[in-house]
Amino acid sequence: MPEDINNNATxxxxxxxxxxxxxxxxxxxxxxxxxxxxLGCGSFAKVYHARNVNTGLSVAIKAVxxxxxxxxxxxxxxxREISIMRQLHHPYTVKLYEVLATxxxxxxxxxxxxxxxxxxxxxxxxxxxxxxxxxxxxxxSAVGYCHSRGVxxxxxxxxxxxxxxxxNLKVSDFGLSAVNDQIRPDGLLHTxxxxxxxxxxEILGKKGYDGAKVDIWSCGVILYVLNAGYLPFNDPNLMVxxxxxxxxxxxxxxxxxxxxxxFVSRLLDTNPETRITVDEIIHDPWFRQGYQEVEFHxxxxxxxxxxxxxxxxxxxxxxxxxxxxxxxSFSSGIDLSGLFGRSEVSExxxxxxxxxxxxxxxxxxxxxxxxxNVTIEKDCRxxxxxxxxxxxxxxxxxxxxxxxxxxxxxxxxxxxEVGSSRHLLKDKLMPQLLELTYKPEGPxxxx
Length: 447
Hints:
Helix content: 25-40%
Oligomer: single chain
């Protein structure tokens, strides 16, 4: 049977209560973060409240023991959590600011949710129908966003839903999340995981399940809890509770409105094939009352990755000028992607040296993009950004001025599905760019 295996220090549990006021044994992290009280701990991680010494921003820092992760065989688990959190930029998901590492620990620097857990608010009493709807709307906005990027949470519950200083929802704890590359050839996920009271009936059947559909079931349980103040499926005997879940055996409290009863029944449909979808939820009359579409800026791999001190050559194009620190940072020595000695395959950076102008290089990139039917966005200050297969990959072309005549062309690639950009980058784009590579005339001196 599924168990709540996410027993590391969860951000949800961590951001609500300090443990005996304990202070971090490392008061200053990399000279950048001043660590404060211990907020929560688990089998291989601890979470601290911290402050950015430069900006004063409050953050939560999750310190993960490399030794315990390796010993527990959870390396892939931690890497996946980092990879997923780096992808997500939504107003109702907890933001991962950065990942730092030492020889013994990995540090997740995470948005601090001042309002604590939603669970703590519900435990004081049920919500009104309007307030339940407001939080459910925010939850579905975040969950729909995650699903559109091939991320399935698989452990949605009030303990993993935080509140910011404005009492808006923040979905946290992506440690049990799955991504598309974990789906088996039958099109389903098969890992048994989750929290018993929120687990979908098809997971209990052990025949595979759709990650999006089990998240919707959990959302249904959450909405029931918001309105009722207690769980729809609960029993001291775990097997009895599982039987209730499998049969969809629950009752509504008397104060539940007819429209809400109908809506929750569609969420808690034991048949995943007929269970309501995110798109159907958004168009449901009960859900749409007071609903406003969330607008946000996509921050995935963006122009800000190129901007810096600019070199003006008198034309419309400006290119970042490299200083000594920039050149050092191009080395792999400070790349934190290989936290366990192996780099992430979801991101890659290529660099070439060229005498050609940025306009000429962008022209070549544009030709490839048009031939391959890939979306291209150009920026005279930076280069070009290519996005394909409905956002499954992004390729960013950046220019850096090395000398008066030479530019470094940097090709940054980020994939949500490994291999999704292989054909375009390896077979089409790189051959064109390599033709523009600087080739020094005459023999190269040995010393």
